[in-house]
């Protein structure tokens, strides 16, 4: 990938390596990190990204300058990122965003530039794009949005064939809809998802589909599944095809809303979603506390024991002590991690009772040091 901002923009820190060189660098780093935990005869799978136009989610600051014209100061705007020294870097394109976002970026900026109502006190712009082309733009302001803004934003929606949300402090204005819908295939099976503005979405759609496929191809199916940190059902719904019943937890209201809609979109009926944290779930499972949210859920009917599977996809902090202990009760553990450091810490405990059967790195964020990992463990 060629980018005119390599060596300047702080987003792509591995700009001085080819894609294969950076992938080798990440592979070698993680191979060394986990060498004491992974069996010597076990290979580490590599899930590659596209080399450019791979991000379906992006956000940019809006930077304002002024140019002199006929003795007047005319405001001009550009997109902005942090440079390598964390100073402002004005940009007019981005090579890692999807082709749809890349095409829209200059058109959107030009349209806003000409419209003082849309321009005034705009400071940030977020893009959420489906592989189908569905596009959601969030414009974020340092002012209250009024009826005049709504009218001009609706015109912009029609002009660019996009969906727009306006945000300011304690205000969210939805003009048409606040989600995109996307469909992708896993092992030749299509799955359809709603992704809501403000909810978590995987930024690299193609790698996401490969991650799900890797999980499905490397687990022992059957029995019941317990999933913690389920989000909008990204893994839950494809995994439900491999298990009898699924009990999934998530703390975010937006994600639970999306997960239930996504079940309907995919005609899935064997999943029960519970809005609670992993810590609360462990307390409920151990009869430490009673929760009104569980009054219609019979936890014991899921038989979450040494014959079941647990799936965890925690935040960067990894698993807390109680969740690590809970995971060790299950026959099979599936662990997706966005932080190899906390994954290593957790595996030091989990490998006392379980053996690593499969390990993979997922390159969701090409041109950065970041890597995600997947591990499948079974009881010793």
List keywords for this structure.
380 residues; alpha/beta; OB fold (Dihydrolipoamide Acetyltransferase, E2P); 2 domains; 10 helices
Outline the secondary-structure elements.
Blueprint: H1 19-33, E1 44-47, E2 57-69, E3 72-82, E4 88-91, H2 99-113, H3 116-119, E5 122-129, E6 135-141, H4 147-160, E7 163-168, E8 171-174, E9 179-186, E10 189-196, H5 205-217, E11 224-228, H6 236-239, E12 245-250, H7 253-265, E13 271-275, H8 278-285, E14 309-312, H9 321-327, E15 332-337, H10 340-350, E16 354-362, E17 372-379
Parallel strand pairs: 1-16, 6-7, 11-12, 11-14, 12-13, 14-15
Antiparallel strand pairs: 2-3, 2-5, 3-4, 5-6, 7-8, 9-10, 15-17, 16-17
Total discrete domains: 2
Strand content: 25-35%
Question: How many strands?
Answer: 17
H/I helix tally: 10
Low-confidence stretches: none
Task: Name the structural class.
Answer: alpha/beta
- CATH topology call of the largest domain: Rossmann fold
| Average pLDDT level | 94
Strand order, sheet with most strands: 1-16-17-15-14-11-12-13
What is the H level of CATH, i.e. the homologous superfamily of the largest domain?
A: Vaccinia Virus protein VP39
Taken in chain order, the helices and strands follow as HEEEEHHEEHEEEEHEHEHEHEHEHEE
| End-to-end CA span | 45 Å
Largest sheet: 8 strands, mixed
Architecture per CATH nomenclature, i.e. the level-2 architecture of the largest domain: 3-Layer(aba) Sandwich
Shape: globular
- Tell me the name of the CATH class of the largest domain: Alpha Beta
Helix content: 25-40%
Radius of gyration: 23 Å
């Amino acid at each position: 990938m060629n980018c005119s901002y390599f060596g300047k923009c702080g987003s792509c820190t591995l700009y001085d390596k080819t894609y294969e060189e950076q992938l080798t660098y990440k592979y070698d780093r993680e191979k060394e990190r986990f060498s004491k935990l992974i069996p010597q005869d076990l290979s580490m799978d590599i899930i590659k990204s596209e080399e450019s136009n791979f991000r379906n989610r992006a956000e940019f600051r809006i930077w304002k300058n002024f140019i002199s014209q006929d003795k007047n100061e005319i405001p001009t705007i550009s997109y902005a990122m942090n440079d390598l020294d964390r100073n402002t870097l004005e940009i007019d394109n981005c090579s890692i965003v999807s082709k749809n976002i890349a095409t829209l970026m200059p058109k959107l900026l030009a349209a806003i530039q000409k419209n003082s109502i849309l321009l005034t006190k705009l400071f940030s712009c977020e893009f959420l794009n489906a592989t189908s082309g569905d596009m959601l733009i969030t414009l974020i302001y340092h002012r209250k949005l009024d009826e005049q803004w709504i009218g001009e934003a609706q015109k912009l929606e029609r002009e660019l064939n996009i969906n727009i949300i306006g945000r300011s402090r304690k205000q969210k204005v939805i003009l048409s809809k606040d989600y995109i819908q996307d469909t992708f295939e896993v092992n030749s099976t299509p799955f359809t998802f709603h992704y809501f503005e403000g909810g978590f979405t995987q930024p690299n759609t193609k790698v996401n589909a490969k991650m799900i496929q890797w999980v499905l191809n490397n687990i022992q199916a059957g029995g019941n599944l317990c999933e913690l940190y389920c989000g909008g059902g990204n893994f839950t719904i494809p995994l439900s095809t491999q298990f009898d019943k699924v009990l999934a937890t998530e703390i975010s209201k937006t994600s639970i809303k999306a997960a239930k809609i996504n079940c309907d979109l995919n005609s899935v009926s064997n999943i029960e979603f519970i809005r609670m944290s992993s810590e609360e779930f462990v307390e409920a499972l151990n009869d430490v506390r009673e929760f009104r949210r569980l009054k219609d859920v019979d936890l014991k009917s899921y038989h979450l024991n040494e014959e079941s599977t647990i799936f965890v996809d925690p935040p960067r902090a990894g698993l807390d002590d109680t969740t690590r202990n809970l995971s060790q009760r299950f026959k099979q553990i599936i662990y997706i991690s966005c932080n190899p450091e906390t994954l290593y810490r957790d595996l030091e405990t989990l490998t006392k009772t379980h053996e690593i059967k499969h390990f993979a790195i997922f390159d969701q964020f090409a041109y950065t040091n970041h890597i995600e990992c997947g591990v499948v463990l079974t009881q010793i």
